[in-house]
Amino acid sequence: MTNLVNLLEKLASDEGYNQTRLDGVGVYKASESSSRVPLCYSQGLIVVAQGQKQVFLDEQVYHYNPDNYLVLTLPLPAECETIVTPGQPLYCMMIDFDMGQLTELVRLFDEHHQSSLYHSCKETKGLYASECNAEFNQAILRLAECLQSPLKSDVLGKGLVREVLYILLQGPLAASLFALVSHNTQLSRLERVLKYLHENYQEQLDVDQLADMANMSTSSFHRNFKQMTASSPIQYVKKMRLNRAKELLLDQGLKVKQAAAQVGYESPTQFSREFKRYFGESPQMIGRA
After folding, report:
1. pLDDT band at residue 271 using 50, 70 and 90 as cut-offs
2. Strand, helix or coil for residue 20
């Protein structure tokens, strides 16, 4: 992991998220620890080279560090704590899932009769942490080395990401990834709904319409949604709106009323009340920061 830390350090000149040459691949840097805060995770893989993180989802805590990796099969609002040793910044590689590439790989596993075990597994999750092995670590290291060169990134980068996904699909908890891109599983149907919500979170929520989209009864939809995301549909959308509003306040300098309207709140007062309850700070304080 020392080699990986050195490589990621060269790719992360700024605090926070640093985009690399490859779309969907970035390096996250944090020089200081941070207490438990709400945020939204994207679908993808997170690999920690140095430092530790903890994700809190409902009553469960997921630890990820240089010994394991975190996989998010669904975009999830959760809470995260970062643990940094002074003088040793946290470095993570983050790889967003390309659903087309993942679907193609699962098709090849099917053609080679390598997916029956995963298809028969009933337990699927919105996220999971799994132990790193030597093959996985070597693939991540090759990808980090490739990203040092613009030419290598353009020529070899996508193939190396494909190799990492191939190794993920061989992991002991990969049933969730197979279910994500397989036809008519609960996970794949919920993923379709979540994609719609992320594109239309400002609109009024119609739970019956969402249940129809997932081809479930309303009660079954509520139960499965809660099981996979640890939130009800209404809570999920509220968390999305508030996280997006925080981004608008911090990154674009919008006024509180503007941010509230842009994420779908009709009442700035209600927005401010729910924002403070969720983040522990008022939107005015966030905006000034």
Report:
1. very high
2. coil
Angle subtended by helix axes 134-146 and 150-168, to nearest 10: 160
Instruction: Say what the pLDDT of residue 120 is.
Output: 65
Separation CA 198–CA 241 (nearest Å): 9
In whole angstroms, how large is the CA radius of gyration of the chain?
A: 20
Q: Average pLDDT of 7-23?
A: 96
Length of the chain: 289
Beta carbons within 8 Å of 71's beta carbon, 6+ residues apart: 44, 45, 127, 128, 129, 130, 168, 173, 176, 177
Q: Which two tokens stand for residue 233?
A: 């549909």
Cα–Cα distance, 232 to 77 (Å, whole number): 12
Q: Tell me the residue ranges of DSSP E strands in 65-115.
A: 68-72, 76-83, 90-96
Angle, alpha carbons 121-74-106 (nearest 5°): 50
